Amino acid sequence: MSKTERAEVDTGIIIEPHLLERNKIKTPAINLIEINGQKIPDPKLHQRISFLKSAIRIAGYVLLPVDIVIASIVLVVSEVIGIIEELV
Fold first, then answer.
1. Which residues lie across from 39 on neighbouring strands?
2. What is the pLDDT of residues 28-65, one digit of tens each?
């Protein structure tokens, strides 16, 4: 097969060209509040995620004497939620 020839394989997958355009990809809706012309995230959602992170972190510390491996996993999960918290 030369470089100009293309092999055609029928995978059964149909990709519409308009689905590949970046400007038409929908992003998840995050409620943004505008203050003085600057958009800021929803403070209530940030607070809820923060409380969830704190509860998971407390559970992780409570689990330390019981099982250090499970406690470590729970604490890592709380850190991942902390990253998500900063993105909201």
1. 34
2. 555 666 777 777 778 899 999 999 999 999 999 999 99
Q: How far apart are CA 21 and CA 70, in angstroms?
A: 43
Where does the chain have alpha helices with state H? 43-63, 68-87
Helix axes 43-63 and 68-87, enclosed angle (nearest 10):
170
**Which amino acid is present at 83?**
I
Joined together, the tokens standing for residue 11 give 């995978």
Q: Which two tokens stand for residue 43?
A: 């403070």
Q: Do 56 and 78 contact (CB within 8 A), yes or no?
A: yes
Cα–Cα distance for residue pair 50/85, rounded to 1 Å: 6
Query: Over the stretch 10-27, which tens digit does the pLDDT of each residue have?
Result: 666 666 665 555 555 555
CA–CA dist 35, 79 (Å, integer): 29
Provide the pLDDT for residue 30.
Answer: 55
